[in-house]
Amino acid sequence: MEYVTLNNELKMPILGFGVFQVPDKKECEESVYQAIKAGYRLIDTAAAYTNEDAVGAGVKKAINEGICTREDLFITSKMWVQDMESYETAKKAIDVSIEKCGLEYLDLYLLHQAMGDYFAAWRAMEDAYREGKLKAIGVSNFYPNILTNFCETVAIKPMVNQVELHPYFTQEKALETMKQYDVIPEAWAPLGGGRYNPFEDGMLVAIAKRYNKTVGQVLLRWNIQRGVVVIPKSTHVERIIENIDVFDFSLDETEMAKIASLDQGYSGSRAKHFEPDFVRGCLAMKIHD
Ligand SMILES: NC(=O)c1ccc[n+]([C@@H]2O[C@H](COP(=O)([O-])OP(=O)(O)OC[C@H]3O[C@@H](n4cnc5c(N)ncnc54)[C@H](OP(=O)(O)O)[C@@H]3O)[C@@H](O)[C@H]2O)c1
């Protein structure tokens, strides 16, 4: 595994395992366990995925079997918008996430969206970080203007910004802003999130063939070579194993540029952060009473 160093000197694996849209507890637990067995050390969940407990169960199983120690792992979760109402609701949400994961601390906790009173929520995150409950704190879906204002305002700058990053939405400007504030970029939907059909793109297939790799591996390698952390999701063991096998080849400059030329300049996902209806939908989404 290769690592990036966060602005607080913590090491974070450059490749991890995502569990979005794995609501079935048994399936999630088994996937997390298989991922750790395959060598993944970073797991990415969120309060909104309602599977923090299943992630915790998979982690516990792997530790109990001696596959790794807690210290080897980098467990990430995220605070949902519902809890970003005030300092107090945010403080409680952090404790609930830690408890649901069955852990004493989380390695990284993110504000899932720049919505609600995210400055109040951040102050609760800063305090939990100071107390050692969270080893690193960060944000997600903070576009360049929001991230800039945020970094210029808060006491502790975010260590990570998790945003949509893949060849169809390369977000070069977002990466520049993150670099300026020493915020590590983390890619959600690094395989395209089930959209765009990259697996049948002739150019990607040809590059994959050249290295005896798959298109999925090329997509992950492309982001890694840009210094972006990737967290592919799969519930299939053979793909879980395939997606971590990306450290024995390098794309050349021409290939990196060719892949980047797929950029459409906008997100094709349902997460439309610039649409008022999407924002209202997130604000209305309740994950607990
Ligand atoms: N912060 C946010 O707002 C946000 C938003 C979205 C996602 N995320 C995080 O980012 C993680 C990854 O994003 P994502 O799950 O949306 O998308 P993704 O990892 O880009 O793609 C997952 C899709 O690709 C398939 N797949 C996985 N490996 C494959 C392979 N080797 N070949 C072909 N298909 C493959 C999966 O199917 P199978 O499972 O059937 O293999 C699934 O349909 C999430 O799990 C979550 O942790 C965060």
Short description:
This protein is an alpha/beta fold. The chain has a single domain, classed as Alpha-Beta Barrel (TIM Barrel), CATH 3.20.20.100.
Could you walk me through the main structural features you see in this protein, from its secondary elements to its overall organization?
The chain is of the alpha/beta class and 289 residues long. The protein has one domain: Alpha-Beta Barrel (TIM Barrel), CATH 3.20.20. It is 41% helix and 13% strand. It has eleven helices and ten strands. It has helices at 25-38, 52-64, 87-100, 118-131, 144-153, 172-180, 202-210, 215-225, 237-244, 253-260, 276-284, and strands at 3-5, 11-13, 17-18, 42-44, 74-79, 108-111, 137-140, 160-164, 184-188, 229-230. The strands form two sheets. Strands 3-4-5-6-7-8-9-10 form an eight-stranded parallel sheet. It has a two-stranded antiparallel ribbon with strand order 1-2. Strand 4 (42-44), helix 2 (52-64) and strand 5 (74-79) form a beta-alpha-beta unit. The longest helix has 14 residues, at 25-38. The radius of gyration is 18 Å and the shape is globular. The protein starts with a strand and ends in a 5-residue tail after the last helix. The model has no long low-confidence stretch (mean pLDDT 98). The structure holds NADP nicotinamide-adenine-dinucleotide phosphate. NADP nicotinamide-adenine-dinucleotide phosphate binds next to helix 9.
